[in-house]
Amino acid sequence: MTDPVSSTHGAKAQGKAPAPQSTIEKTKLAATHALDTARDGARDVADRTAQVIDSNPLPVLIGGVVIGAIAGALVPRSRREAELLAPVGRRLRATTTDAVQSAKTTGLAELGALGLSKGALSEQGGKLVGGILTALATAGSAAITASREAKAKAAE
């Protein structure tokens, strides 16, 4: 009969890991192996995910926003949540409204300081559109003339 203690020391002396002797040791070894496998798998998934995010950050960001919006729409809003968030929503709305009005007032004041009114801007916009249309018409006429000249030279 072999002595378990001496056979374990013999395996260590030969540079080999000792074979598990009990059910507890076997369970520990299996759990350690499963943990290592799961850790390696998680590391691989994290690396692949990082590569995808690095190569396509915008679609990933948009996807995250969409998933968040869907989750927010599907999760029902509780009465307590409504009570807590209502004051925040009112302050946010008031602040946003004030900021937009301030930007509008400041922008109109700056345009007024430059001598630009709504009427002047409308007139300048009309002149710009008219100039663009004239340029397009001239370019089209030039293209037709060049095409006719090329056909005439080819016919000669």
Structural class of the secondary structure composition?
mainly alpha
Overall mean pLDDT: 79
The count of helical stretches stands at: 5
H/E topology pattern: HHHHH
Low-confidence stretches: 1-13
The 3D shape can be described as flat
Q: Major beta sheet, specifics?
A: none
Q: Looking at the chains present, what oligomeric state does this protein adopt?
A: single chain
- Taking the alpha carbons of the first and last residues, their distance comes to 113 Å
Q: Mind telling me the C-alpha Rg?
A: 38 Å
| Total number of beta strands | 0
Strand content: under 5%
Could you estimate the helical fraction of the residues in percent?
over 70%
Organism: Sphingomonas hylomeconis
Protein name: DUF883 domain-containing protein
Please describe what this structure looks like.
Residues 1-26 are annotated as: Disordered. It comes from Sphingomonas hylomeconis. This is DUF883 domain-containing protein. By secondary structure, the chain is mostly helical. The protein is 86% helix and 0% strand. It is built from five helices and no strands. The chain has helices spanning 4-13, 23-55, 57-74, 79-113, 118-155. The longest helix has 38 residues, at 118-155. It starts with a helix and ends with a helix. Residues 1-13 have low confidence and may be disordered.
